[in-house]
Amino acid sequence: MAPLLLLPTILLLSSPYVQAQQNITLGSSLTPQGPNSFWLGGNTSSYLLAVWFNKISDKTVAWHAKTTHPDTALVQVSSGSCLQLTSNGAPSLQDPIGTEVWSPELLGAAYAAVLDTGNFVLAAADGSTKWGTFDNPADTILPSQVLTPGTKLHSRIIATNYSNGRFILNLQNNGVFFYTVSMPSGHQHELNWSMPGNTTNLVFSETGVLYITWDDGRQTKITSGAMSSMEDYYHRATLDSDGVFRQYLYPKKFSNLYNQAWSVLDFKAPNIYIPRSYNNLAVSNNQTTCVCLPHYSFIDEQSKDKGCKPDFQPPSCDLDEAGARKLYTFKMMSHVDWPGGDYKQLPNISNSLCQQLCLTDCFCYVAVFRDSDNTCWTKKMPLTNGVVGDSVQRTVFIKVPTNNSPQSELLDSNRWKKDKNYWILGSLLLLGSSVLVNILLISIILFGTYCTITKNEVLSLQSPNNIGLPLKAFTYVELETATNGFQEILGTGASGIVYKGQLQDDLGTYIAVKKIDRFEHETEKEFTVEVQTIGQTHHRNLVRLLGFCNEGKEKLLVYEFMVNGSLDRFLFGDLRLQWNLRAQLALEVARGLLYLHEECSSQIIHCDIKPQNILLDGNFTAKISDFGLAKLLRTNQTQTNTGIRGTRGYVAPEWFKSIGITAKVDVYSYGVILLELICCRRNVESMVAEEDQKILTYWANDCYRCDRVDILVEGDDEAIFDLKKVERYVVVALWCLQEDPTTRPTMLKVTQMLDGAVSIPSPPDYSSFVQSLP
User: Fold this and answer.
1) Which residues are annotated as a binding site?
2) What is the dihedral of CA 401, 404, 407, 412, to 10 degrees?
3) 615 falls in which pLDDT band (50, 70, 90)?
4) Binding annotation for ATP
């Protein structure tokens, strides 16, 4: 559908400073014409009747009108339509020829009003509500809104298309249920998650907490608003188009441009699956995305939930085992499964035999193996209801063509044989290629002279062979313009200052520009190492390097911009992240370090892991930043000797001893951060009244030895409720903080312990040695 145009008959103003509501009298009307109509106009012809946030630049829709039966269709009108509060007390939305396309089923309202809560109501003469948007939600609920049994939230198709999507959150008398539906039939599939019980209401409290009330008086939190005040932030909770129920906040005051966006405060993210979405996976966490299997591609890039198709020919049933091994191999994936598609179950066999049986079976595309009982499943096409997540205890083997397989060539040759149009296209391409080659040869000759003159002015750093990725080489003028003359400082580091900027591209991409302002020989070396190092890294939990500038003495690095800034502002300030999000951040930082230590082609030691160097994107995903102090090790090295690096409170004890430095220094720093995430306080707090609590690492050890880990999270109800995980995380931190580096676990072991995948013995007593804080 065309981009939607919004009719803000209903303006959402949740600020305590707004004026009292103004009643809308009977007979009032709006049309999408004229400067004072409050319709937003444009070059499209579709209009949407909606409630939006009016005092922010992002005019976010909180409610939109649907037909009488909300499971069917979206209400759209064209230019020339009219919304009128009729004399019988009901609003009527009519198309240009006067046909009514939407009206609530009620009579007798005396007036309409927009409440400060964002609820648009039709009221009787005595002020009682006869109809309101709060009682007829779309995909979003707002503070003070209460959903009663029989109410549904229905996601959109995509963020910019407000028609009903594939996910429903349904509040019923016997519980809260989340499920997917087929479109457009609306057929309900099995539940993704539920909270069964005798339900009374789903409440979004005025303090920003979402919870379920039960008939026995209990309350069960869905999300928590503990980190934000209602006076300083707008709040909403939306069942997004990817099937995740998220709570968002938006700052009312813009003292820092970092905060001018909706941020995810909390989310309810089940393991989503898309029914009858073939050969793909729906990855659900803070963000749900569909991804194709290796050697598969989307049927429709614009509608990825339609599934994926294989990019190779089906396996032949005429192949023997030797032929099958020549043409096919397996890609292994963990924590993945497709509940549909099984056609064989083979108990009590080995992992290798499971793969062998699938390899020689022409119907088998995927083999699934469960280690706990040595069970093997073989799956045929299509693979349906794919899910991925830590709770999915499966190892899968995906049959794909080998590197020397002729499968892709066979596909291409068959296509040329079957369609003469490909011959015509091929001839045109060949002719065009010849012309293009001649043009390129001439260009190379002409351009060669220029390159010869200027090549000495460009460091070898700009060579793709040195960088490893196609990083963009920015000019200094470009970055000076993007940062408005390097005005807004985001932060400072050991090697330079970081500025906020915005590129002059089609998307207006925001960037963070690190300017090396003390250029010396060592700094130049550090700059080269940083570009080479980060340019070859790519991980969800690492800040991405977009490009660089290398003009004379001007050395700058261009990074992706992190909307929510650094972790320290959410740990040590007034804002407080809820416990399950802090636990997720701890795991994400661990995974980022694991990538640096063990999954890069060259091992990277960060050397300055601290909350200030952990940035958060708009979805509160943790990303490790600032590789300016990283020490790059060659693959045949195990340790290095260097000067003391790092930040007070996070530095490992071996920095002060004449021993080699290994990746275990990062493990130590991570242990400190893990405790800070658990307790929401700095490692060193000199202002704490109790002497034994001033150093967090010592205090946490004492609490653990006394079996009183609960003291560390006192006042944090969610953490107290999840005390077993809190204790597990504390034990992992104490292992990371061992004085002897060889005793500390690797980051691989750390992630396994955090996940609960391995048992964790009690760590040696941290107080058995004395360490002076740096």
Assistant:
1) 515
2) 140
3) very high
4) 515
**Is the same domain home to 555 and 639?**
no
385: nearest Cα among 233, 277, 502? 277
Contact 656, 714 (CB under 8 A): no
For 754, the enclosing helix (H) or strand (E) is: helix 747-755
Q: Is the pLDDT of residue 608 over 80?
A: yes
Q: Taking a C-beta distance cutoff of 8 angstroms, is the pair 150, 172 a contact?
A: yes
- Residue 139 — φ and ψ, nearest 5°? -125, 0
Spatial separation of the C-alpha atoms in residues 443 and 201, rounded to whole Å:
71
Based on the domain organization, do 181 and 260 belong to the same domain?
yes
In this structure, are 35 and 60 located in the same domain? yes
Cβ neighbourhood burial of 536 (10 Å; 0-12, 13-18, 19+) = middle
Nearest to 625 by CA among 546, 535, 563, 541: 541
Active site residues: 608
Number of domains, the chain? 6
The partner residues of 772 in beta bridges, in order of sequence, read: none
- Whether residue 328 lies inside any domain: the answer is yes
Domain boundary among 542, 560, 578: 560
Please name every residue paired with 344 in a beta bridge, in sequence order, or none if there are none.
Answer: 378
pTM, to two decimals: 0.44
Please check whether residue 214 lies inside any domain of the structure: yes
> What is the domain range of residue 444?
419-457
Asked whether the beta carbons of 669 and 650 are under 8 A apart, the reply is yes
Tokens 């006042």 appear where? 715
CATH number at residue 210: 2.90.10.10
The torsion defined by the Cα of 750, 754, 755 and 761, in degrees rounded to 10, comes to: 80
Asked whether residue 426 carries a pLDDT value surpassing 90, the answer given is: no
